[in-house]
Specification:
- Helices cover about 85% and strands about 0% of the residues.
- It is elongated.
- It has helices spanning about 5-25, 30-35, 40, 45-60, 65-90, 95-100, 100-130.
- Helix 1 packs antiparallel against helix 4, helix 1 runs antiparallel to helix 7 and helix 5 (about 65-90) packs antiparallel against helix 7 (about 100-130).
- The chain contains seven helices and no strands.
- Keywords: Membrane, Transmembrane, Transmembrane helix.
C-alpha cells in the first residue's frame, strides 16, 4: 500500500469518527443513541471517539514515525469491537431502529467500521515496524 493511500486511510478513519458521531448522534442530541449504551456512547464517550478521530488525522503524515501509537490504535479499535459484539448479543437492533433510525444505523455499523480500521491500523503498524 502506498504512503499516500495510507495517509488517506488515516484521514478517512478520523473523519468517520468525527463526522459519523456528529451526524448520527444529531450533534449529541440523539437520546436513543446516548442511552442505548451510556457507559460507552454517552456524550463523554462520543467526545472521546471524536478525539481519537483527531488523533488519527494528526498522525496521517507521520504515522511511520510512531509505530507503537499505531498499536495503541489497534488495541483501541479491538476494545470497541468487543464492546459492540457484547452489545449486539444483549440488545435488539430492531427495537433501537424503532426508537431512532440514526441510532439504529450507528449501532449496526460501528463495530464493523472499527473492525475494518483495526485491520488497517494493524497493517500499517506491521509495515511501520518492518
Amino acid at each position: 500500500m502506498k504512503a499516500s493511500v495510507i495517509q488517506k486511510g488515516f484521514v478517512i478513519a478520523g473523519l468517520s469518527n468525527i463526522v459519523g458521531v456528529l451526524i448520527l448522534s444529531k450533534a449529541f442530541t440523539n437520546q436513543a443513541m446516548l442511552t442505548a449504551q451510556p457507559e460507552v456512547m454517552g456524550k463523554f464517550g462520543l467526545i472521546a471517539i471524536m478525539l481519537w478521530g483527531f488523533a488519527y488525522i494528526a498522525v496521517s503524515k507521520s504515522y511511520y514515525k510512531v509505530p507503537w501509537l499505531l498499536l495503541v490504535f489497534v488495541i483501541e479499535k479491538l476494545v470497541y469491537v468487543i464492546v459492540w459484539l457484547l452489545w449486539q448479543n444483549n440488545n435488539s437492533l430492531s427495537a433501537l431502529y424503532d426508537q431512532d433510525t440514526f441510532a439504529g444505523i450507528f449501532y449496526t455499523i460501528y463495530g464493523v467500521n472499527d473492525f475494518l480500521f483495526m485491520l488497517f491500523f494493524g497493517y500499517v503498524f506491521w509495515k511501520a515496524k518492518s
